[in-house]
């Protein structure tokens, strides 16, 4: 009987630990990017028209060719060939590219901070 | 982001749209009632008592429900429909504001007309109107048959080569109303969108005064690199900008491009990115439209032309 109870007890303990740790607030820096939503990001991409220049996985129309295709971004080394590929950097870049890379052709886009993080989340998700 | 896709057909916003919506609902309700009648009759014929089956199968019911009832119902519906939509075909008085909208493959040429019918301001893919009053549209075509349709403001009316069809639209509230070509016109027909912007009458009057004046004045940014590139790279061969040497008429008028809500004929929001993407390679956005891609432009040139167009407002 004791043998049968042991695994069940372990699972219960594990569940309790998981649940309680999920309730603990994550550090501030993580919150911003962790709360970003790829789904909202896709909506923002469609609203401002990123795909006018970029062919983006999951966006069926348009499939712009003026800028590079945006797939596999998660495994890419650098953003725009010079910035470290981190979510907050990507978010800042999609919002105001010339501020980070002055000689890029990409203009600042009408995205809020929140939307920019969401867009970054989407671009990473499609690369998986 | 087509403004009128899917078409908001059950959301009328003016007196020339609501009769159509009402009629649609009435027709839908009648069709549902007839469906119920037919299903009940079928059920009786299959599972009803001997007496019911004999009744459903008799000659009398064919005369009554098969001929008399449809004649009465359809005549009543026809008369009701004609009465309900009579305002749509009222004689056009001639003192309303007039705008000529010409269907082109695959965009819309817009000319605001004065009392003599002469164009006083040119635009494309966007129509500004005052709220609360009817505006008469002279619908024409420059090539094939198109159909003008702004679902929330009016019904559809074909634009036929060699003809001038008149239609009234009216918006009761300020706002933006999407339109869509409703007659297959080849190639990117599905990407031939349109936008109507309704303003309060004073704001509309101001806009028209500004625009009419702008047509006679020199264009902004005449000394910029973009202005020069607009001439030298070939843009001016197809596009007009009032007050410059650019007077091409094959493509949309760009005198107010910077103020336009959309890029590519009602299909993309107008911002620096979409405009640049369109100029760089519109074929990737609207395949087979008549503007070629411009891979020959450098980054600086593309930015300069875009900036110049954004000044045109």
Topology overview:
The complex is a heterodimer of chains A (128) and B (313).
Chain A: H1 2-23, H2 28-34, H3 38-48, E1 78-79, E2 83-84, H4 87-95, H5 97-100, H6 113-125
Antiparallel strand pairs in A: 1-2
Helix pairs in contact in A: 3-6, 4-6
Chain B: H1 18-47, H2 50-56, H3 59-84, E1 97-104, E2 107-113, E3 119-124, E4 126-130, E5 135-141, E6 146-149, E7 156-159, E8 165-169, E9 175-180, E10 193-199, H4 201-216, H5 225-232, H6 235-238, E11 262-263, E12 268-269, H7 272-281, H8 299-311
Parallel strand pairs in B: 1-5, 4-10
Antiparallel strand pairs in B: 1-2, 2-3, 5-8, 6-7, 9-10, 11-12
What does this structure look like?
Chain A has 128 residues and is mostly helical. Chain A has one domain: Cytochrome c-like domain (Cytochrome Bc1 Complex, Chain D, domain 2, Orthogonal Bundle). Chain A is built from six helices and two strands, in the order αααββααα. In chain A, strands 1-2 form a two-stranded antiparallel sheet. In chain A, helix 3 packs across helix 6 (113-125) and helix 4 crosses helix 6 (113-125). The mean pLDDT of chain A is 83. Chain B has helices at 18-47, 50-56, 59-84, 201-216, 225-232, 235-238, 272-281, 299-311, and strands spanning 97-104, 107-113, 119-124, 126-130, 135-141, 146-149, 156-159, 165-169, 175-180, 193-199, 262-263, 268-269. Chain B is built from eight helices and twelve strands. By secondary structure, chain B is an alpha+beta fold. Chain B is 36% helix and 20% strand. In chain B, the strands form four sheets. A five-stranded mixed beta sheet of chain B has the order 3-2-1-5-8. Chain B has a three-stranded mixed beta sheet with strand order 4-10-9. A two-stranded antiparallel ribbon of chain B has the order 6-7. Among the domains of chain B are: 18-89; 217-311, Immunoglobulin-like (Sandwich).
